[in-house]
Amino acid sequence: MSEMTSAQQQNHAVDDRDVEIHDYDVVVIGAGGAGLRAAIEARAQGKRTAIISKSLFGKAHTVMAEGGCAAAMGNVNPNDNWRVHFGDTMRGGKFLNNWRMAELHAKEAPDRVWEMETYGALFDRTKDGKISQRNFGGHTYPRLAHVGDRTGLELIRTLQQKIVSLQQEDFKATGDYESNIRVFHETTITDLFKADGAIAGCFGYFRSTGRFVRFNAPAIVLATGGVGKSYSVTSNSWEYTGDGHALALRAGATLINMEFLQFHPTGMVWPPSVKGILVTESVRGDGGVLRNSEGKRFMFDYIADVFKDLYATSEEEADRWYTDPDNNRRPPELLPRDEVARAINSEVKAGRGTPHGGVFLDVSTRLKPEEILKRLPSMHHQFKELADVDITKEPMEVGPTCHYVMGGVEVDPDTGMSRVPGLFAAGECSGGMHGSNRLGGNSLSDLLVFGRRCGLGASEYVDGLAGRRPAVIESDAEAAVDRALLPFSSATEGGENPFVVHLELQKTMHELVGIIRKADEMEMALKKLEDIATRTRTVAVEGDRKFNPNWHLALDLRNMLLVSMCVAKAALERQESRGGHTRDDFPVMDADWRHVLLVLEALGEDNVELTRKEQIPMRPDLLDIFEMDELKKYFTGEELGGHRADQGERA
Amino acid sequence: MSYWAHFRVWRGDSEKGELVDYPAEVNEGEVVLDIIHRLQQTEAQDLAVRWNCKAGKCGSCSMEINGRPRLACMTRMNTFAEDEVVTVTPLRTFPVIRDLVTDVSFNYTKAREIPSFAPPEGVEPGEYRMQQVDVERSQEFRKCIECYLCQNTCHVVRDHEENKEAFAGPRYLMRIAELDMHPLDSADRQTAAQDEHGLGYCNITKCCTEVCPEHIKITDNALIPLKERVVDRKYDPVVWLGNKLFRRGEPANKNR
């Protein structure tokens, strides 16, 4: 925390070009679950590691994950195993997922959860003392390790405390807590540096002082989370400005699946100031039901053909499932999130919404008050304090909110490395794992599995360099300073307030590239984004560089803009509806699109270029996990030649 | 339904500062943080404030509102009369960086001084077995969102800079209690709580409990039980004898 001390000593002039320089083996950008797990691994591999956090250490967006961490431990239902989890994940993503990532994730998640216990995590328990697991949308068996409805907080705190424990070990050995792993909190990275095509370092500023900082490092792990702040109604915090996505693009890496955005079905809709704040899926997992203004449990009307065999068709069967899941099908409230979000959207559009434009989510008539307080304490607290609603007595009003981006940096599944040597990505800012739609609970497990893999991948990459580290090119470093200072020089030329431009961007994306999309609207969005790009280049800020939110936003805006262009371009290109991408003009899922990935790369400073790429065909042993009948709903005929049914017929 | 409120916000840095008056529009259902954001978007563009989740889950937007330590995101505007002046100032116990943002590094320093979870020897990952009733005591303390309102309000350090060296503060004494009550933690923590982290400074006035936005019973469930364990330990003749015989001998069972 020594930069805090410099905060008090130095008051930087606006145009001060001085840069503090550090050398590390691995720099992790982002201090949420993925970043912290990556850093722990890099440090375990003996690498000097820096963690860069846009907020204070421990405040990451991971705390917003409520429901749990999916891992097929089989503690509650012994029938669960990695194959079932893999199958659910692929099904949830409509088979567009990178199957290798889904495989690694399903196989490794239990070990990552158990490891958290050795770091001190305290999950809720089963009667025999094991980690308890709860039901969630799209998961066949109770699978989510949880702590009430604050699982994300438990994960972030546990990882934070593990890092402290590593620092304590280092202190014993070297007398310096920060000798091998140091957290640079309230620090934002604005540029990555390359030399000879490989990563050489990165540049940014300390938010508290505005002082510039440069890290010379051969390996960088991006773990910056998502992009929700480009939308007006979102569950995401101010940090979610697509920094990692944009940094990767500018460094020459590619993004995939950017058309797939998850609108979580249940965000708060009232009062206006909290619109978008998340209402955990656990409410439904624990028995909560969705009703429209006519009192009807409408989800029974929205079971898509591909899910017909898996979900209950009557309220009676659905209710029996909670106590007898082996002999009944699950309630349709627990369909994957994309399905539920679209259904709510349709009900509201059809005039069957609540007074504040949502639908009712009711747990008060389903569980006893004490049970609700025990299982959903933070939801009870949130509604009581922010909306004057007591969820033990009355229903909540909920509606879709922009929650998660499935798209992200295209990486090697095993190591997490992008196409830029030395540049890695894990967690929400990487792409592929969740396909077109992420299942609830698969995010926390994703963080742990691929955070660790990136830490390992980065360490091995550094070892492979054998000391020949690319050096930052000084002219690049100077250009980064110029770019960061631009909003101050624009001020003298009468540029706009960045808040105003930001609101315009959010409105554009929300209205024109939102939950239901049309070609003409997206074309209009792309035109508007071009205009916003011009305005973003000349936004101007008031004040100086010390903790100036105006300046921070001016710099973040560049990233939000670039990412929004990726979303709009990819969404316009994909002429089908699948997962987190719904086209009003192409309402049906099309098997010919399943094997196509839309790849984006940077074209200059604030534009992107889109190309199509074929998915790698799934390994036959993984295909065999599914029945042929199910695969036929998603795949074209010629893709299924390797399936056991086909082989059997030939033999 | 909207009205204009009278806000008075502290602006300045570590060297100088003053309360600045702002008229601010308030709409139905809004919280103090909404108003601060509106000021940023209108007449105080460089007003510094920390915030993240805006849902009471991250503990970033701690400040003092009409003198009370609160989370700005959980303080509803309808708790004030429309003609009431709403005064917003930074946390008093920590040095100001700018406007409403303070240097909270004291807390990170203290966090690092508390020995971490000590895993039980010979228990493999996946083999941890604990009963729900046993984990619940520590789970209550792990609800902590580290907003530092308790650290800010505790009178041991609030106006006593000189006590900061010796006193970990309620949040970190609670962390010791949490680890002490963890069913599988293998370290001995009670003596150090008193001797190294300043448990004795706490005279259970419950100010920390009162300001906790998570409603954790810090004093009743963490600090008092920890004090009792320390006292039991000190005056238990068997423990005294054991310590004599084995010098710093660890008791076979954690005293719980």
TrEMBL record, chain B:
**Which InterPro entries would you find in this protein's record?**
2Fe-2S_ferredoxin-like_sf, 2Fe-2S_ferredoxin-type, 2Fe2S_fd_BS, 4Fe4S_Fe-S-bd, Beta-grasp_dom_sf, Helical_ferredxn, SDH/FRD_Iron-Sulfur, Succ_DH/fum_Rdtase_Fe-S
Q: In which pathway does it act?
A: Carbohydrate metabolism; tricarboxylic acid cycle
GO molecular function per UniProt: 2 iron, 2 sulfur cluster binding; 4 iron, 4 sulfur cluster binding; electron transfer activity; metal ion binding; oxidoreductase activity
Q: Does the keyword Metal-binding apply?
A: yes
Answer whether the UniProt record assigns the keyword Protease to this protein: no
Q: Where are the transmembrane segments?
A: none
Record GO biological process? respiratory electron transport chain; tricarboxylic acid cycle
Q: Which UniProt keywords apply?
A: 2Fe-2S, 4Fe-4S, Iron, Iron-sulfur, Metal-binding, Oxidoreductase
Which cofactor is recorded for it?
[4Fe-4S] cluster; [2Fe-2S] cluster; [3Fe-4S] cluster
Location of the 2Fe-2S ferredoxin-type domain: 5-92
Protein family: Belongs to the succinate dehydrogenase/fumarate reductase iron-sulfur protein family.
Protein name per Swiss-Prot or TrEMBL: Succinate dehydrogenase and fumarate reductase iron-sulfur protein
Please name the source species. Answer: Pseudonocardia dioxanivorans (strain ATCC 55486 / DSM 44775 / JCM 13855 / CB1190)
Phylogenetic placement of the source organism: Bacteria, Bacillati, Actinomycetota, Actinomycetes, Pseudonocardiales
